[in-house]
Amino acid sequence: MVVGYAENYIIQGFNVLKPEQSVSVMRAFDLESEVFIEEITTDVFEEVLFNLEALEETETAITSSRRLEQGYLKKNLFGKRIIGSCACCKKEYPVSYLITAHIKKRAFCQPHEKRDLNVVMPMCRLGCDELFEKGYISVLDGLFVDMLKTPNSVELQNFINEVSGNTCEYYKEETQSYFEWHYDHHQ
Question: Please, are residues 99 and 125 in contact by the beta-carbon 8 Å criterion?
């Protein structure tokens, strides 16, 4: 089990998880919080400052992996065009301002889904991609919808209202299951 309980453990009430258990749950279910920032003590803060000052170099070489299919998916969406349209707000931007956005989160895709040209759509970097990625908006029956997420603000809600109700031209038989996954995942 994710938090370390035995298979036959019966939850009989409300339990507060230990910090390491909370981290396990967050990782297991791909949860994130930009609101909660763990408090640090003065000693820890001073140690961090000391360690930063002690750094001789601020860069290092790393070995990383990359998404091999991403270039093909992007080329399929944009070809050689310089300007493209956001699937959500419908505004035209230089392609460098558009993301090859996964409809179903890539982390949850099966290998064959990662290679499916229908798993992505263009979303602008100016807000639509972030709203879709975090589940503030989704697509239901071919229309962008407000998922009523929190936290929210007046400005964020105004932006959501601008795109809610827009038709998603990428909603079709081949993409329907991906959009259903996104909607269900963010409910």
Answer: yes
C-alpha–C-alpha distance, residues 83 and 94, integer Å: 4
Task: Output the six-digit token pair for 19.
Answer: 């910090």
pLDDT in tens, 14-34: 677 777 777 777 777 766 666
- Determine the Cα–Cα distance for residues 89 and 68; give it in Å rounded to an integer: 28
More confident residue, 133 or 37: 133
Considering Cα of 174, then 128, then 97, then 106, what sign does the dihedral take? negative
Neighbours of 69 (CB within 10 A): 18
Show the tokens assigned to 180: 């259903």
Q: Distance between CA 20 and CA 173 in Å, rounded?
A: 42
Token pair for 62: 């790393």
